[in-house]
Write the structure tokens for this entry.
Amino acid sequence: MGVIVQKFGGTSVADTERIRNVAKRVAKTYDAGHDVVVILSAMAGVTDQLISMASTICERPEKREMDVLLATGEQTTAALLAMTLISMKYPARSLMGFQAEVRTDCAFGNARILDIHADRIEVLLRQRNIVVIAGFQGHDCEGNITTLGRGGSDTSAVAIAAAIKADVCEIYTDVDGVYTTDPNICSKARKIKSIAYDEMLEMASLGAKVLQIRSVEFAKKYNVPIHVRSSFSQEEGTMVWSEEADMERLLVSGITCSKNDARIMVKGVPDQPGMAAKVLAPIAEAGIVVDMIIQSSPKNGTNDIAFTVPRTEYKAAMEIEQRVVEAIGAEGVYGDESIAKVSVVGIGMKSHSGVAAKMFSTLAAENINIRMISTSEIHISCVIVEKYAELAVRALHTAFGLDSDL
Amino acid sequence: MGVIVQKFGGTSVADTERIRNVAKRVAKTYDAGHDVVVILSAMAGVTDQLISMASTICERPEKREMDVLLATGEQTTAALLAMTLISMKYPARSLMGFQAEVRTDCAFGNARILDIHADRIEVLLRQRNIVVIAGFQGHDCEGNITTLGRGGSDTSAVAIAAAIKADVCEIYTDVDGVYTTDPNICSKARKIKSIAYDEMLEMASLGAKVLQIRSVEFAKKYNVPIHVRSSFSQEEGTMVWSEEADMERLLVSGITCSKNDARIMVKGVPDQPGMAAKVLAPIAEAGIVVDMIIQSSPKNGTNDIAFTVPRTEYKAAMEIEQRVVEAIGAEGVYGDESIAKVSVVGIGMKSHSGVAAKMFSTLAAENINIRMISTSEIHISCVIVEKYAELAVRALHTAFGLDSDL
């Protein structure tokens, strides 16, 4: 008999009929003798509706009040699930963020969890209650309502699982697990049975959308096993846990693809010390996050510096670099929004060479030019022209032996 | 410069456009130098929507969870008004029931306010904030969310006004004050400028709907002046305050009419001690509230006992009395759902005789039979046949000199 945290996303609680299905699943786990804590998101679409209502008041609603408004979404689903369970004769009780004592900093709209006093949750569990907690919300040290930002309910779930030392944190969603790549791009994508935190983090930051990065970071820090699975089937999903856990040993676990970046190249930068800082510091000062950076070898006393920024910041970054070019006497600045970043991710890469070579030759065989490359211990990313992205993903998926048998 | 509590009902905050109008009114009061605390209801219709959503889950949703669900309505409007004020450059801050420390008992769905720790409100006021509080909700000693029952926001407003020793509690609603009678029935109804708590209590319990009885009881207990006025005009409304306050001295302040009762008569009850108890005790045991009771003079060793019950309980009460009739050997039971209770209310009656006589003769002049009579120090009620109700109201309104000059 274990302690199990179950988190259900917005599509799983989209109406009272689906909430009834969630209740049945929760009840089944409870009947098996487990202690069950349920974390809920708002009904699908509700958070967006609230944001759009606030936007009729002003363009940028004050953040503290926005959090008070948004917190109603999860409050609603938590109350509805608890009353559904009670109508089925199960002892259930809802807790809001402040009642579950999810203490956060006061960064309204994007608060970070500081700690969770699990006393009340634990007392309720000892009395054999099913505890239903509104996800996405907490309270700061002054008792203000805070929210954790988009996808924050995953983080709530993992943090609460850590606080009560749960055996597993089950994340129910509308997909049935983490896939080797996006099944919409590659029909041969395969569900991954088991993946390490670090791999999952790379997958998430490189474009896989199934789990919020912050929740995986939290899970890694407190060693909470996550089970990502579908709320619409009984099938096992994907286990996300520490590297030491028993898992399939593949060289590469997955292929990701992101189209969220743009590339900027400053050409003809004088080959003098401090020039890279002069090119990049103004970007950082504007709060724009640079991902990849590449500097060419010097030629004729100058070199080229290329880097990627989020596509949403492309225009601002280009304007900054135009001013930089004038200031440092570079040749010019060139930008490209039509790029994609394709990555291979795998813990197995740590102890194997040849992954990069295989990636480059696979892309070459498809006549796809590589514009930029970045690597870490467990991933290699290549920037390519956007229109080749899907082809690249499929080719790499096959080359690294990830295709399913179907 | 005073401390002013302003409470706005559901129709006043029905959408973000109306919330903006509320914000302008609040801002005007603030600009005049007053400290302002605003109490809000949920948007018109929202509470009913939430109840109907819960009813798709089960017939009688568990009450604690129902309160969690319902509390989202006022949370939404409080956040929206605060962000509207902030967008207009006013320092505003929303507080939920638990943050404003509105402590109640744990009678979920119909909780009573025990006390309010006004420290946080007072600190915010001293910092010249506009404090926006979600009405209708509080928290019990275990930190559970509670709600105060229908119309509870009026009670929230008066209780908070008492706690912070406000100079006045303004109740903004969709009518512009308390009228001498229902203007829909009598076109000559006149707005009352000033009315005593006790009169208002009688008016409310006898059918006037403008203020919740509990809020008036609270106001009387803590001597909080209430100003009932329209949120759609700038006109003065009706002041509700203590008898000692300066007010118009009229014999009768208003005429009320209620069609919520039914009359039951048990005929031929043996004229023996204890028979009235045998007739009425089973009604009380069934939780049915009896309003008027009349026992006729004995004739031929029996008498008749008549009483009124809420019309919603009529059937249940009739079934009970049919069993009583058999048990005590009475002649039979007769019921009538088509009755109305017409009342005249006025503190002036305390020191004047002749009000009853005038009421009876006025009804007689219209050929209206009086079926039952009840009186208190400041009201006289007559039960009549329902179809004469409007005629009776108009005749009494004229007879007691309440007609407006229009």
User: Anything to note?
Assistant: The two ends of chain B are 37 Å apart (CA to CA).
